[in-house]
Amino acid sequence: MIKITDRIKSGEILVSDGAWGTQLQSKGLKTGECPELWNITHGKEIYEIAESYINAGSDMIETNSFGGNRFRLAEYGLERRLSELNKKAAQLSRKAAGNNHYVLGSIGPSGKFIMMDEVSPAELTETFSEQAIALKEGGADAIIIETMTDLNEACIAVRAVRESTDCEIICTMTFDKSAKNAFHTMMGVSPEDMVRELVSSGADIIGVNCGRGIADMPDLVKEIRKYDGNIPLMIQPNAGIPIFRKENPDESSGKDPEQGKIIYTESPEYMAEISISVINAGANIIGGCCGTTPEHIRQIAAIVKNRRHGIK
């Protein structure tokens, strides 16, 4: 297939997928279960999630391997199955993607902090390399290093993937917004820091995922574009900031079906509408993170399709 970056250079806007974690929960994943083990025990459900995004119009889908590094798998006693679980994750998404859609091998944070001496750069390099190799072997076209807040760890991951595979590399970070409307990660990384360090480390595509809803994304994209107008940019926001729906004892209509659940308030229609501004601000790939569903992606994909055909 044509490289993702080559399609972007030709002027295409591409559509990624939506949430995996919340979709897994809707399929029955329980708190305390290892999501990556589902690649073996619930392969049908994993395939269905991947297929649902392809059917919704995604040009690319991720793999169920976000927590597939040695340290997170060790919490379940599964660290020795790292290669098996990651390879299977890529195989399931590859089956759903076929030969005409991209598979992005998902790598999330280690859950350890270098600054607190919980892990060394060498250990991070080793586990990210192991994960990337297994995802590549399973059929991943590109590797997406996502939901990063620590720039040092993100750069280590980018370099590890660069040294161990020939995959295109995407790296996205998660930003908060201060009372003064400044964007920064939980670790204090600014958009300028992200652009400078990720590009110099070898990322082919950079961007933003998770954290906030789509309403803040046009401004964040504009901020990123101040520092680099050419690097391909991916945006995958949540469907709003999550809200825990508490019980309302005064409801006369009976129990709220959303009672006791975490809900996301941005509708597919709203996200699709704002996605136009995100694209106009300079995004090249757009999709979603937590709370986004195949219907969110379907409506975003319709916007992108209209744009491809010159319909405003």
List keywords for this structure.
TIM Barrel; alpha/beta; 42% helix; globular; 312 residues; eight-stranded parallel β-sheet
Name given to the CATH architecture: Alpha-Beta Barrel
Secondary structure category: alpha/beta
CATH topology: TIM Barrel
The major sheet is characterized as: 8 strands, parallel
Number of domains: 1
From the alpha carbons, calculate the radius of gyration and give it in angstroms.
Answer: 19 Å
Note poorly predicted spans: 247-253, 255-259
Mean pLDDT: 94
Written as H for each helix and E for each strand, in order along the chain, the element string is: HEHHHEHHEHEHEEEHEHEEEHEH
Q: Distance N terminus to C terminus?
A: 29 Å
Give me the count of strands: 12
| Strands ordered across the widest β-sheet | 1-12-9-8-5-4-3-2
CATH superfamily, by name, is: Homocysteine-binding-like domain
Beta content: 5-15%
Large-scale geometry:
globular
Helix content: 40-55%
CATH class term:
Alpha Beta
Number of helices: 12
